[in-house]
Amino acid sequence: MKVRIYQPSKTAMQSGRAKTQSWQLEYELETPRRPEPLMGWISSGDTLNQVKLRFDSKEDAIAFAERKGWEYTVQDAPVRRVRPRNYADNFRMDRPRF
Known about the structure:
Blueprint: E1 2-6, E2 23-27, E3 34-35, E4 42-43, E5 52-55, H1 58-68, E6 71-75
Parallel strand pairs: 1-6
Antiparallel strand pairs: 1-2, 2-5, 3-4
């Protein structure tokens, strides 16, 4: 069984970074997703894609996957760059205009 271990990014509805410090273990799809003929919804024959396990650290998630004997891939979170900005920069006269 193949699993993916990653750190989730914040949702579009979040302004803060809550619930992004934990790590998630998610099963890889065994069967492809396809539209259901009756309703047109996207379905899959594999129900494990609904299961997401949450861990406090990457090492805990890796240890759990190794204990179960699963193949895993780890996706490290991208480095977050914070560019400091000042409110007064919005009113500078020498900034480029669009």
